[in-house]
Amino acid sequence: MARSGRGNEYFELSTLDGGDDDLYEASSRRRGRFAQRSRRRWRQYLLFGGILVFVIIGFSLVFSSSPTDDSSGAQIVLDPTEAPTAPPTEPPTEVPTEVPTDPPIEWPTEEPTEAPTEAPTEAPTEAPTEVPTVPPQKPTETPVLQWTAVATPPKRGVAAAAATLPSGVQLLVVSVPSAAQVAVAVDVYVGAIDNPADRPGLAHFLEHMLFLGSRKYPAEDDFAAYLTAHGGSFNAYTAMEDTNYYCTVAPEAAPGAITRLAEFFTAPLLSPGAVEREVNAVDSEHQKNLDKDDWRLWRAVQLAANPAHGFARFATGSRSTLLPNDDVASLQAALGAFYNATYSADRLHAVAAGPLELSALQQMLADAFAAVPQRDGLIPRPQLPLPDDAAAAALNSIFDKEQQLGRFLRLRAVASVRRLVLLWPLRSMSGRSAEDPLASVLSHVLGHEGAGSLLAALRARELATAVTVEVKQLNAATLLLLTVDLTEAGLADVNTVIGGAFAYTALLEAQDGVPARVSARNEASTMAANLCPGPFQFLA
Q1: What is the pLDDT of residue 390?
Q2: Of these residues, 82, 207, 241, 278, which one is catalytic?
């Protein structure tokens, strides 16, 4: 702009001073007036030029001396790094009036592209300090991963692979060409069993809070809005020992969904405003459960367990347990402390499945979860196997044989149901790595509905209409629940039904029963069929 200004000035002056010869042959009076007019214009041009230079220098000083006044984030951040290289070297070679005007206009657009080309050795040192938390800035971590192929059914081109990040996050990706969407799930080895004794329901409340903004995506509805805009869905649940977060999204939007989900476990906001609002949502969830018979029955089972064990604690949470004194700051502090003591990279499992290439899924998952930190000082999990020390075993046992077992509880149902539930706590033998084979065998045997089964005998006496078996596998124990839907006669004679169930298990023992350990789950069905007793009859 300064150059064109000087060019215009020179053109105007040359036109006035370099006219036809006739001008100079005119009368001296005319030449005198012309000379005076020319000198007057020279003064004006010099005066104007001096003011223009002053204004340009003034604006350049404003831009260079007070970068924090600029509302552009790029100029504020990048100005200090570029100033040592561009401005000091250019002014000595050019007219001072030209340099100050160019940088304020060109820096915001030129700096991002010039930095890597002009100073390639400085970029690697600046990136970690300016943007230390962005996972994509660490491309060297992904190639280090050793992905292991996972066996899949030999059809439809399905392929799978697994790997473990240096932080401990375990990854699994599955390429399913026929899938319409990408599905992502993250399981955290933290659940209701870890609830603090003075804040029941905190694990479930934390599950709610992680959806309400992170440092990278601070808007409370960002995750939901992104998935909705790309045809996706999401949900989560808090179980006894695990909390699971999952979503589906269009394939082209998978990177954004995975990155947003990973931020749950990196830097959630847990803002006070969201804390106060979400307490009411959790309390509403609790209120609607009060009239559900299945929920009431499970809560009764918890209350009958070892009170020193986390299994016995209230899992859902309510306003009275989470915010007893309306102290939002205290709840927020407890929430942050619980998050730091339970959510760690080595307790995370992340899975992504969809129609994308296996390598693309691997890259997305590894990049997104690379920043999840591994924390120290975590709340310990129950010991396996149970310790021999009586005091330690009591803290790790869900049910104590002397105090909590051999009890009969009667519950008043809300709906018109007649049900008997028998619960056997089995000592966990397989840990978390696989389903307990023993429980699987017992489930098949007790739930058998054919001739000679427990259900067949109960139906013959018109005491029951259905028998179902459920296995709840926890780290400290495997719970086997036998549920019998009773007739009116069965409810009136419930002791006979209970006696029949125990007689059936005794019959298993009499014929050498179930072995102490089963080597593989695929043996369970065959073994269950072989173990089913002959025609079963109630003991006299």
Answers
A1: 56
A2: 207
Collapse the DSSP code of 506 into the 3-class scheme (helix H, G, I; strand E, B; otherwise coil) and give the result. helix
AA letter at 106: E
14-60 per-position pLDDT tens digit: 333 444 444 334 444 444 554 455 555 544 443 433 333 333 233 33
Name the one residue in this structure whose structure tokens are 């899924």.
361
SS3 per-residue string spanning 136-168: HHCCCHHHHCCCEEECCCCCCCCEEEEEECCCC
The count of other CB atoms within 10 Å of the CB of residue 93 is 7
Task: Output the CA angle 6-10-15, nearest 5 degrees.
Answer: 150
Long-range contacts of 140-149 (CB under 8 A, 24+ apart): 141/165, 141/166, 141/366, 141/370, 142/362, 142/363, 142/366, 142/367, 142/370, 145/171, 145/362, 145/366, 147/362
Structure tokens at 23: 């001008």
Instruction: Identify which of 361, 386, 5, 383 has the alpha carbon closest to the alpha carbon of residue 181.
Output: 361
Handedness of CA 29, 32, 38, 44 (dihedral sign): negative
Q: Which two tokens stand for residue 117?
A: 């080309």
115 and 149 Cβ atoms separated by less than 8 Å: no
Q: How far apart are CA 231 and CA 223, in angstroms?
A: 12
Question: What domains does the chain contain, in order, with CATH numbers?
Answer: 2-130 (no CATH), 147-369 (3.30.830.10), 419-531 (3.30.830.10)
Residue 533 confidence (pLDDT) above 80: no
Compute how many other C-beta atoms are within 10 angstroms of the C-beta atom of residue 170: 17
Q: What is the DSSP track for 277-292?
A: HHHHHHHHHHHHHTT-
Q: In whole angstroms, what is the distance from residue 368 CA to residue 370 CA?
A: 6
Taking the CB of residue 212, how many other CB atoms lie within 10 A of it? 22
| Other C-beta atoms lying within 10 Å of the C-beta of residue 193 | 23
Whole-prediction pTM value?
Answer: 0.67
Backbone angles phi, psi at 186, to 5 degrees: -130, 125
Q: Is 195 in contact with 201 (CB distance < 8 Å)? A: yes
What distance in Å separates the CA atoms of residue 190 and residue 239, rounded to the nearest whole number?
8
Closest CA to 236 of 264, 271, 277, 276: 264
How would you classify the pairing of strands 348-354 and 170-175? parallel
Q: What is the largest CA-CA distance in the chain?
A: 148
Query: How crowded is residue 382: how many other Cβ atoms within 10 Å of its Cβ?
Result: 20
Sheet harboring 464-473: ordered strands across? 419-427, 477-486, 464-473
Q: How far apart are CA 306 and CA 309, in angstroms?
A: 5
Catalytic, 207? Answer yes
Q: Tell me, what DSSP letter sits at residue 427?
A: E
